[in-house]
Amino acid sequence: MRAPRHFLRVSGLGVCKGRDSRNGILLAKGTVPMRHTPTVLIVDDDASSVKLLTVVLHAAGCDVRVAATAEEALETLRSFRPTVALIDLILPLMSGLTLAQRLKADPVTAGIALIAVTSFNGPEAERTAIDAGYSKYVRKPIDPTSIAELILGTEGSAP
After folding, report:
1. Domains identified in the chain, total number
2. Three-class SS of residue 64?
3. Residue at 18 is within a domain
4. Residue-level pLDDT at 48
5. Is residue 29 part of a domain?
6. d(Cα 98, Cα 102) in Å, to the nearest integer?
7. pLDDT the model gives residue 144
8. Whole-angstrom Cα distance, residue 32 to residue 90?
9. Which of 38, 76, 120 is nearest to 129 (CA)?
10. pLDDT value of position 142
11. 84 closest CA partner among 114, 62, 61
12. Is 4 part of a structural domain of the chain?
C-alpha cells in the first residue's frame, strides 16, 4: 500500500493539513501537495507575533524555530538551516536590516529566502528592506492565511 501524501489546505479560517489516502477522501479545491517539510526561522521579539506565526506555520506543516534577537538567530543558524526566515526589522541590539546583510554576505546562509515582517509602512521602508537582501516585505498585523501561502510559495526560491 502506498503511503498517504500530505496536503496543505488554506481556508478563510486558517491553515490545516489534510491527507489523500487514495480511498475516497475528498480534499478542498485549491489544495496543493506538500513535497517536504518547509523549514522556517522566525526572528521577532514581539511575543504575540511569534505566537501567531508559530501556530499558523506549525498548522501548515512547517518545522519552525524562533529567535528573539539577531544574535540568537545567528546562534540558531549554526545548527538549523531554514529555507525561509521571517525577520522583524526592529530588533534589539542588531536590526533586521543588518542581520539580512550578514546572512546574504555569508555563503552558508545566502540561500535562505528572507521575508521582512514589520510595522513600517511606505515605499522607502520596503525599498530599504529589499536592498538589504529581503525577497518579500510583509506589514503587521499579519494575515495568517496570506503568510502561510507566502511561505509555501517562497520556499526554495531565494535569489
Report:
1. 1
2. strand
3. no
4. 93
5. no
6. 6
7. 84
8. 34
9. 120
10. 87
11. 114
12. no
**DSSP category for residue 45:** S
- Kindly tell me the number of DSSP H helices and DSSP E strands found in the chain: 5, 8
Q: Is residue 1 part of a domain?
A: no
Q: What is the pLDDT of residue 155?
A: 54
Q: 144-157, pLDDT tens digit by residue?
A: 888 988 888 755 44
Cell of 8: 496543505
Rounded CA-CA distance 144/79 in Å is 28
N-terminal to C-terminal alpha carbon distance within the chain: 39
The sign of the CA dihedral 91, 96, 101, 107 is: positive
The span from the CA of 124 to the CA of 40, in Å, is 27
Which parts of the chain have pLDDT scores under 50? 1-34, 156-159
Q: Whole-model pTM?
A: 0.75
C-alpha cell at 1: 500500500
Residue carrying the nine cell digits 546572512: 103
Determine the pLDDT at residue 15: 39
